[in-house]
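User: Hello! I'm new to structural biology and keep hearing that structure can be predicted from sequence alone. Could you demonstrate with FAD-dependent oxidoreductase? Please show me the input and the output so I can see what each looks like.

Assistant: Of course. The first part below is the input, the amino acid sequence of FAD-dependent oxidoreductase. The second part is the output, the predicted structure written as tokens.
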Amino acid sequence: MRIAIIGAGIAGLSAGRALQAAGIDSVVFDKGRGPGGRMVSKRTEYGAIDLGAQYFTARDGEFRAAVDEWQSAGVVAPWPVNPLVLPERQPARPETRLVAVPRMSALARHLADGLDVQSGIQVSEITRELSGWVLSGRHGESLGEFDALLLTAPAPQTQSLLAEPCPRLAARAAASRMQPCWSVGLVLERPLEVDFDAGFPSSGPLGWVARSGSRPDRPHLPEIWTLHATAAWSEANIEWSPEAVGEYLSTAFAELIRQTPLVTARIAHRWRFARARGALAESVGYLEHEDVLCAGDWVTDGRVEGAWRSGRAAARRLVNRLMERSGQGGG
């Protein structure tokens, strides 16, 4: 069995590794420059800046075991921070917040090691042939034939790809609402004199602020703050220019901290599908119709851990299907 995985985020990479452990070949396609999805880090002249996922938590036993392995491998570390709700300065819920080191994309690269990950390739069409599933790229080029498909891309992209070949799953993807997020890396001339490292603003356009250098293995200079706009503000201003967004959100940050930071650079990034607010909460962790499966945070609970569990569950389902076809299944 040859499997195509569309999307090299945490769900796709988790699935790829589970299939590899079972001796099943897979090819992971991703339109980005490298693996990671929303856990990628932007490389700049000031160093790598985590503009996507800021941290993750581990609640499930199986995922905690995986985190322990990643910590032993030196790619994950706890972030000893307790964010404040601002400006009220109430502490957020205490929990162990984890980050990849030395940047968030390090975990994705660790998971991708040894997998056939083809970056910079956008799957634009899926067709069903007698010989199997055929994938085509954005210029119509064939990307190969596969026995089964696993889509781990954001719900709107999954819906678009499956609209014709698998409308049943496309309809399920349409039911999951994903929200955008504008993110800004604010590079400062000198450190701020504030007594917190991260916070959740309770009003205004900002939903998250964090001092990058407070994370493990990050440089302290130049001081860089990551600013995330709220989903509502991002959606309302999704077509703004990066320059306009950077200036507006840095002004909002100055008002929040009641200081005027000296800004060296503003680096803005638009995530069109940042958060799965309408996650489907599928108990099995995946969607399935014939030889097509869907997995990802939007299928489960919207968290990094949910994406990882979803990818593994889908991979196990594919392994079981292969065993059933070969007559090795139980029962």
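User: So the tokens describe the shape?

Assistant: Right, they're a compact way of writing down the 3D structure. Reading them back into a model, for example: The chain has a mean pLDDT of 96.
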